Amino acid sequence: MSKTRARHGTYIFQRGSTWYVKLQSPTCRVEKSLRTSDFREAEIAALPLIAEHKAALLANRPKVTLIWHRAHEPGLRVIDGEQAIVTERELQFIDASGNVVRREPNGGPAQLLTPAPSSGVPSFKAFDDAKRPTPAVKNGDDGIMETYLSHRNITGHKRREAEASWALYKSLIGKPLKNATRDDGRLLAQHFKDTGNKSATAVKKLGWLRAAVRLAIKEGQLQFNPFAEVVSENGDDELRRKPLSDTDMELCKKHLGLLGESDQLLFRFLATTGARLGEAFQIDGEQIERDVRYVVIGSKTEASQRRLPLPSALIPFLPDKIVGPLFAASPSIELAVKAASKRLNDFLDECGLTDRSIVVHSLRHRAADRLRAHECPIDIRHALLGHETRSVAEGYGEGFSVVTLKKWVDKIGF
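Given the sequence above, the corresponding structure tokens read:
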């Protein structure tokens, strides 16, 4: 008799040696084989089904939007015996000469609940004009956002936008940040898009949460960022980007001279390692293990930190020994990465690769495909490329020797 084993914290379970995904809602139930006995491959195969399931649940959940509920219609009004100029958000009380003598808010924050209740009238919870609202009890996660906003001295419109993004996360996802996953981050990003925001706007709104969590990670309050790399600034979701084919690579090699010397090396590094663009700018030296040269890349606070052997196809173009930053990161790594991304994507266009789904990140997808084609074990693929799942990445940099990793990274080639 075959045993059924569920994986705690996921939607998948094992029956016999095969993993299945089980999704259940008040209206339907789905149980489907993922056709693999490898848990990590099952996780990846189940991801789009889980995302679709969560999106459907969210679509049926009442949504809360922060609005400003005005108490008085705009115009010249008499309020409690005093003349006032009323705007959308402010009451400007004036004296007999028309001078403003004091200002007060015209109403206050409210929460709009959609879709409408059964009465057909949209509902909202507005705060009483006669007294200030009783502040909600704040939890530790609220403190994370407040700490970030104060740390960066963010005020005005930007602060309101950041607070609205945080309120939306709490109303739609409702998880403590320590339990949030990238699925949750993707669903929030998709909500921004579904409500009419362009990808760049979704990136901006999600960026407040990503930055707040990044600061919390640096201060030891959290270990994982569920909002990192869940939506692309150019509007193409990372999962939809195409890898560069062998024909594409031949075009790139033929036109490589169009790039400056440093960008040529950067392109070779990304192509032969599958590293993220930002990781290339983290290199500030090298180490050696059993005669194999390697560098350490990836954030120290997320799952991507790892030791990366320098591929044989790259070594002839490197200095004899890396003793400082391999790529200049002036005035900052963030700006250097952004500028390099534009240069390399322009280069791909100049090579005739104008498909919007082909970007510099496609080199990373190519590397993953090359390793898969050579039947590289999935754990080693994760160790080389840096996986985002904590459960996979706990032993990165320690699980495999640099010598073992070197044999596989050379399979990527240029």
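The chain has four domains: 4-60, 66-126, 140-218, 242-409. Try to locate this feature in the token string yourself.
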